[in-house]
Amino acid sequence: MKLRRKIIISVLAITVAGAIALQFKSLRQLVSDGARQIKRVEGFYRYNSGWPLRGTPDLKNLEGRLAEKGLKLGAPLFMRIFKTESELEIWMKDGHEFKHFATYPICNWSGRLGPKLKQGDHQSPEGFYTVTRGQLNPNSRWHRSFNLGYPNVFDRAHKRTGDYLMVHGGCGSVGCYAMTNPVIDEIWRIITTSLKSGQPRFHVHVYPFRMTRWNVAFHSDRNWIGFWQDLKAGYDLFEQSHIPPEVSVCGQRYQVRPGSPGSLGRSAITKRCTAPNLSRL
Question: Which residue of the set 107, 171, 176, 203 is catalytic?
Answer without folding.
Answer: 176
